[in-house]
């Protein structure tokens, strides 16, 4: 059944509908997880830009009642998982009050961001906004991640990818970009992945 807000257009969207996920983007997370082994039972996870909820649904399924998931989005999540290990907060990652509320449920083993600015049609503006959002996610993850934790952040590819990856290489054992197959071929998005956060005084830096 096609519900409000369900995407209908392509293979991944149809598969998502069939499997009960509100967005095709869940398959991007599955690919990221298969490649980088991001999620484990017992992890505390933060899902930034979580609506309409497909990543959160899959994370909760994978945690299987263990660990904890905090999700945040400007919009209502749209789905309402009833799980004791889950909390959704509607608000803006840039808002200090929202940051404080998310922090109260940390620290986290994994910070995921599929957050994207509303697109304007002006690619330069959209990529600038996306880079700013990724920087905000990385800044926030710096304070929220346990040592050894990992971060994934969606980026609209503009000129800033190299600089962001260089920055990540100072804080994570591995930092690289990865574009899952489930991304639309024409999309200019990629995911920046930082694995194993180093501690502030690490000799590995
Ligand atoms: C592509 S959607 C995420 C899809 C989601 N991962 C899923 O699987 O259902 C991007 C989301 O980022 C959210 N977003 C953008 N900027 C944000 C911000 N500053 N704080 C919180 N959420 C934000 C948008 O409201 C939007 O719902």
Could you explain how this protein is built, in words?
The protein has a seven-stranded mixed sheet, with helices on both faces. It is of the alpha/beta class and 205 residues long. It contains six helices and seven strands, in the order H-H-E-H-E-E-H-E-H-E-H-E-E. It has a single domain, classed as Vaccinia Virus protein VP39 (Rossmann fold, 3-Layer(aba) Sandwich). Helices cover 34% and strands 24% of the residues. Helix 5 links the parallel strand 4 and strand 5. The N terminus is likely disordered. The site of S-adenosylmethionine has 22 residues, from helix 3 and strand 2.
Output the keywords.
205 residues, 34% helix, globular, alpha/beta, single chain, binds S-adenosylmethionine, Rossmann fold
Secondary structure elements and pairings:
Elements: H1 11-19, H2 26-36, E1 44-48, H3 54-63, E2 68-73, E3 86-90, H4 96-103, E4 108-113, H5 123-144, E5 145-156, H6 161-169, E6 172-178, E7 189-197
Parallel strand pairs: 1-2, 1-4, 2-3, 4-5
Antiparallel strand pairs: 5-7, 6-7
The chain binds S-adenosylmethionine.
Give a quick account of the main beta sheet: strands, pairing sense, barrel closure.
Answer: 7 strands, mixed
Number of helices: 6
Number of domains: 1
CATH structural fold name: Rossmann fold
Instruction: Report the bound ligands by name, code or SMILES.
Output: S-adenosylmethionine
CATH architecture: 3-Layer(aba) Sandwich
Strand line-up of the largest beta sheet = 3-2-1-4-5-7-6
Dominant shape = globular
Low-confidence stretches: 1-8
Task: Quote the average pLDDT.
Answer: 92
Beta strands, count: 7
Radius of gyration: 16 Å
